[in-house]
Design brief:
The complex is a heterodimer of chains A (415) and B (198). With 415 residues, chain A is an alpha+beta fold. Chain A contains 11 helices and 18 strands. Chain A is 31% helix and 33% strand. In chain B, 44% of the residues are buried. Classes of the chains: A alpha+beta (415), B alpha/beta (198).
Chain lengths: 415, 198
């Protein structure tokens, strides 16, 4: 939502009034100021109450207009006296009586519209868009969208966008992680305080270390949820650097946090129990540190019949839609990774005796074979004949013959 | 058990009231411990459960039924797989909602598995944590010290997490609150049971 303030002759007063309410201000012209009012509802109430607060704060007669579209707010403030609140979707109706001279545009376009007898926003909005495009081109289409309050332009912030980055040039080279951590801690504290002052959080941490006689060491931590906890950032950086240390002493540090709106969560009695995102991220980083990143995560099934095909993805404690459970029961397989090579004696076309590492014995019962093959068009095709067998140790196993190599493997056991 | 506790409480209160008279309100702060919630397979929350038995005795089926129930609540669960034997497709077919499951693969290293379980328990927030030691050599499983099991038991107390250790033989001794033994019944192979993957 945007609010436009319009009063002739005193732009400084308008700016001062706008700054009192929001840090995001646009000086649209010498007599008009636009400000971003999203989030002010909690402080001032409804859009009308925000507009009234703005008018009271200014202390001089001025026009205030609130709208979801920036240009609609500006035109309403310039053309309608007092306070105007345009509900979303009512822009064209509200702007319809305004005179056309409020619209920006070339003299040629203005003259053409005047010649056609078009005098108000509403008359221009009612014209067929294709006809406008054919006669006035791109400018005409833009003017018509302005008259309908649908221009949807970008907000031009008066101040440069705030960046959350810190640079530090070291007096002496640093070789150990511990002294680096002290510096990181200081920089992260400053950055998170700046984030907090603007009610923001970060979803990415970028680090670049300039090294002595080596290429810069860069790393980026992507967080599953926006965070603002400097201790958590520090721990994640420490774990990342201990897992992948820079290869040379450090001369300079550059650290940047990517600002995003903070996570909002409605707590309730019936919300699913879940690990705290900050704690979970540190735990996952610690686990990845000694087990490897590829060994920690959530398995995602791949759409193929290839045995044991899945993909590991990052685990995030986000509730997803639960699908219907399968309506049939299947025995649960525990896989041997990699499958164990076995020597199998075949009698009457069925496995009769097996020798495999610590397993050796007669096959008491068997069921199969089930043929499974695929990926023949790739470099890694598979072609298996699978058997389910019972061995004297009382366990059931899945055995397969690789038809391409005629070798036998134990794939796993049922449990 | 609850009626016995209530009777004991009322008798003690009556004796003290009789000795001290009506000047004091006697309240010992006795609170009956609420019944522990049991998950499928009679696995209690906030306690350390050992599930043990030989291969094909149904240990994994028992754990998966509890995991399927919890991940569909929805709660988040963690599976620390010491010997890397977890099959995601079997898990999905058993009804486990995989996006709510954290799988930690330890490639046969039981020390890493213990460390991972400890970290996850300290972090908290999981509905169930499984430490799967089946497939780990028996001598490695026996080498885990009692102090480690005690540490895990203490970490799980007063939390709503169910901590389950699956293994071939009991290892944690008195540290576990419940032991569930699985036995193979040797039903023989039926074609409709082992349908195979096509």
């Amino acid at each position: 939502m945007y609010a436009a303030l319009h009063a002739s002759g005193n732009p400084e007063l308008l700016l001062e009034c706008a700054r009192y309410f929001s840090p995001r201000i646009e000086l649209t012209s010498a007599d008009t100021v636009l400000l971003h009012i999203a989030g002010l509802e909690n402080l001032f109430g409804s859009p009308r109450q925000i507009a009234e607060a703005l008018a009271n704060r200014a202390g001089i007669p001025l026009n205030v207009a609130v709208a979801a579209d920036a240009d609609a707010a500006v035109h309403a403030a310039r053309g309608i006296s007092g306070i105007t609140v345009i509900p979303p979707g009512k822009e064209a109706t509200t702007l319809a009586p305004l005179p056309l001279n409020l619209l920006p545009g070339s003299a040629d376009a203005a003259e053409a519209l005047h010649t056609w007898g078009i005098r108000t926003f509403g008359q221009l909005a009612a014209l067929p868009p294709l006809g406008i495009a054919a006669r006035l081109g791109e400018e005409g289409v833009h003017l018509q969208r302005l008259s309908r309050g649908e221009a949807g332009r970008q907000f031009r912030d008066l101040m440069d966008p705030v960046t959350f980055e810190e640079r530090l040039e070291l007096d002496y080279r640093v070789e150990l992680l511990e002294p680096l951590s002290f510096l990181f801690s200081r920089m992260l504290n400053d950055l998170t305080q700046r984030l907090a002052s603007r009610a923001l959080a970060a979803n990415e941490v970028h680090l670049e270390l300039t090294l002595e006689a080596a290429a810069p060491h860069r790393c980026m931590l992507r967080l599953p949820v926006p965070m603002r906890d400097s201790a958590a950032f520090l721990k994640l950086l420490q774990l990342e650097l201990s897992a992948r240390p820079p290869g040379a002493p450090v001369l300079k540090i550059w650290l940047r946090l990517n600002p995003v709106p903070p996570r909002t969560q409605q707590h309730g009695l019936y919300i699913a129990r879940a690990p705290e995102p900050e704690k979970l991220e540190i735990t996952l980083a610690r686990l990845s540190n000694f087990l490897g990143q590829e060994n920690v995560g959530t398995p995602k099934l791949v759409d193929t019949h290839r045995p044991d095909s899945f993909r590991m993805t990052h685990f995030a404690a986000l509730v997803t839609k639960v699908t219907e459970p399968p309506d049939h029961e299947t025995p649960i397989l525990r896989r041997f990774r990699p499958p164990k090579h076995a020597q199998v004696l075949v009698a009457a076309g069925r496995p009769a005796h097996i020798t495999c590492m610590h397993l050796k014995g007669k096959v008491l019962d068997s069921s199969g074979p089930w043929q499974s093959s695929g990926d023949w068009w790739t470099r890694e095709p598979w072609d298996h004949k699978e058997w389910d067998i019972a061995l004297p140790d009382g366990a059931f196993y899945r055995l397969y013959e690789d038809c391409r190599t005629t070798r036998w493997f134990l794939e796993g056991n049922y449990d | 058990m609850s009626s016995t506790a209530a009777a004991l409480r009322s008798s003690i209160e009556a004796i003290v009231q009789a000795k001290l008279g009506a000047r004091f309100d006697v309240d010992f702060g006795f609170r009956e411990k609420p019944e522990q919630e049991l998950l499928p397979g009679n696995i209690p929350r906030g306690a350390f459960t050992e599930i043990y038995g030989p291969a094909s005795s149904g240990r994994t089926t028992l754990m998966f039924s509890a995991l399927a129930y919890l991940t569909r609540q929805p709660e988040f669960c963690a599976y620390v797989d010491a010997a890397d034997t977890f099959c995601p497709r079997s898990a999905a077919e058993a009804g486990i909602h995989l996006p709510h499951l954290l799988w930690v693969r330890c490639s046969g290293n039981s020390e890493h598995a213990l460390k991972a379980a400890d970290l996850l328990l300290q972090g908290g927030g999981f509905g169930m944590l499984v430490l799967d030691l089946t497939g780990v050599a028996l001598r490695d499983a026996r080498r885990i010290s009692l102090a480690s099991w005690f540490r895990l038991r203490n970490a799980i107390e007063k939390t709503p997490t169910a901590f389950v250790v699956a293994e071939e033989q009991l290892n944690a001794a008195s540290c576990s609150a419940k032991q569930i033994q699985c036995r193979a019944s040797n039903p023989g192979i039926r074609p409709e049971l082992l349908a195979g993957e096509l």
